[in-house]
Amino acid sequence: xxxxPYVAVLLVVTVLSFAASVLVTRIWPIxxxxxxxxxxxxxxxxxxxxxxxxxxxxxPPLAAGIVGWLGLAVVVVTCNQFSATTPFPGSLAxxxxxxxxxxxxxxxxxxxxGVGRILSLPPMRAVGxxxxxxxxxxxxxxxxxxxxxxxxLGLPGRLATVVISAGLAVLTLHLI
Length: 176
Prior knowledge:
Strand content: under 5%
Shape: globular
Structural class: mainly alpha
Distance between the termini: 40 Å
Low-confidence stretches: none
Helix content: over 70%
Largest sheet: none
Number of helices: 9
């Protein structure tokens, strides 16, 4: 169809950027995390989902349900298994990104059923609305909190930073 050239470009970007991510993560993990060339593949995969919505919508309901739940399981497992020692972004970033692709793709076929039934609940939608602001606030709050309180944070302190950064995210979303 008319999206063919765009799909081809995004496929090339995905492959080249992912290869760069894997290589750079091994030698300079911080650079790989912050540099666009090593993370562009994630955005390109999102673009590929957007350009292939029609194909996702053709998934039979049972297949879409399985794909969506599998994607959510992959995201949840990686959230719980990745640690500070996990080389990231690198090849392991493929897991949560592909999980997300599967959830979004399946949602095109079953928007209000399957995993979409849970993700469309008001509390989940609220977290989705806050998520980018929360993402922007969490790191500065987590980094500066030990300096403000004068000691490293234990689990209660880190949980408090989650709540504080969520509050800042909500305020940012509503005020800006």
